[in-house]
Fold this protein.
Amino acid sequence: MRSVVRAESWPIRGGFRIARGARTAAEVVVLELRDEDHVGRGECVPYTRYEESVDSVRAEIEAGCRGLGGPGARAQLLTMPAGAARNAIDCALWDLEAKQAGRPVWELAGLGRPPRAVRTMRTVSVDSAERMKDAAAKLAGASVIKVKVDGGPDLRRIAAVHEAAPRAELVIDANEAWSGEQLATWLPMLPKLGVSVVEQPLPADDDAALEGLERGIPICADESFHDRKSFARVAGRYDMINIKLDKAGGLTEGLYCIGEAQRLGLRTMVGCMVSTSLAIEPALLLTSNAEHVDLDGPLLLENDREGALHERGTGLLRPSALWGTA
């Protein structure tokens, strides 16, 4: 089995800004695993928050692919740390196995049925309240809008988005930018502004204040939750977890995590980095068991991969033949 690794840059329409900074392009790494007759592909997004870069992830993928093969190849990956590199390899192995077996991944994974078309929440990036209001007005038909905030005049920003899209359910994502005082002050006010979830308000290494915190809406762990090792850490602090394949280390771990969350009574969101549809197709296999779907990464790009069937206007994600088909 041969491996080909390459980096790609995909321009983002209008740019993208969260509490941690701004980007104008999605920098992704694509892995192709080849045998004599088939090619399996996986895409990942290196994330500096987790000390990843395009170069470091490429090197990790290349090292992880050495000697990889055989029926237990995916199990071998559990020796790698969870993260973007393992995600690319795991998803490429699933795709290759589907093509070799002549059966789709959903069937190989024992899911019982193929992934269905699903609507994703849409995202409003951090900006001035006025510009966020304008952005939300263009998404007013969305049933759920994720509002990125940064610890600044966030209550005004949230109110502006709610005014522009009063029927939309709002998920507020602070990306670790709020203080404990801000959270305690703002949390009681948020339900009146259409907010149904607050995602990662406090830094992952300083979120003990969530224990025993009275709340009228659930708090979701993102940076505080990565893979199966994170369940003990989020217990008693969070009501929901955001499962991202780039954090978990691939579809194999994502499937385990969503099943374990159900067993523990934790609510779930399936999320993504800003990426192309090649990275989103595997995550669609988790959506039937998730309360929230946040997979609009490809919809933020100027252009997506040829063959993608997602609808930018409606936010409808349609499974395609890009990945995981026989």
Summary: The longest strand covers residues 2-18.
